[in-house]
Amino acid sequence: MAYDSTSRSKKNTLGELQIIERIRSRASTTLSKSVRLGIGDDCAILRPPAGHEILVTTDFSLEGRHFRRDWHSAASAGHRTLARGLSDLAAMGAKPLAAFLSLALPDSSSENAAWLDGFLEGLLALAQRYGVPLAGGDTSKSPSNEILADIVLIGSSPAGRALRRSSARAGDRIYSTGSLGGAAAELASLAASPTKYRNSTAADNHPHLFPNPRLSAGQTLSSRRLATSCIDLSDGLSTDLMHLCSSSNVSAEIDAARLPIHPLAQRLDPNNALSAALHGGEDYELLFTVAPATKMPRSIGGVAITQIGQILRNRKGRPQVTLIDHEGHRSGLPPQGWEHLR
Ligand code: ADP
Ligand code: MG
Asked: Rounded to two decimals, what is the model's pTM?
């Protein structure tokens, strides 16, 4: 607890206690059976399902690095903060148990109070959609003019069943859920005209501003034992596939002609469309591998899946990730996922 206590009595401004109370009253709509005790005590008390293991992930959302107040609405910033954590749970096939939000606002001005409302609206709408209780957090005054947020997600999965990035085998097919490059394409148009999507909401299709974490796809891959390994596409296909290959000690080959290019990226010229899909990042789709004998449906957990390549044995002189271009030529694909707001 550390906030601007002198400003608590001013109208329309927020001290720490008011912030927590505002969050608590709005978060109560997200509470579930798994949370025995939520916001209000020193700790939350969670009740994981019997026979399950606990999975934990934490992600920063820092103004200037992960979002910009002049590009992202507060609702988009809130949605994206939670979506990043949920996508990590999705990648391991886990079910969310609870979320914890640490938040630092620069000061208690009415501008920040309004921003907080929008942020909570975006975050809690997504929480409600996926049944994720907000069970606690921390609130402080930011040491700078930037808003800082950190989300912790606690999930569970049946013991021994969480999907990992380290268990792909040579011969496995590589799949992606959904489509790729949409987030990068939308970010580019946002950079060109920042106010364009000011009033858009999660109800519209906005791959960058309001991404959909693939929780049910991940849970299905795990519960039906369909995938040998899985990772979420946060940094970009070229970078995340390299992570999966390094962890699994294998190589991979990706077929450019098979990549499911998002409609927004298809509007770019073909080179930029391909590069958005390969390196754009933040699509929050799942990249997973499937043993040769496993029969796959066309969609999983309500989302289409596409085979985009295969896992190969490591061999001297073979790049870790190879791209087969539209003419059938093979070349090494170095990791070029980028940091968006660098
Ligand atoms: P303490 O000082 O004991 O750590 P706090 O005063 O920081 O407690 O928090 C009081 C309660 O409010 C705790 O249950 C905490 O989890 C919750 N809380 C504080 N900040 C947030 C936040 N940003 N989001 C959700 N819950 C919060
Ligand atoms: Mg305490």
From this structure: 0.94
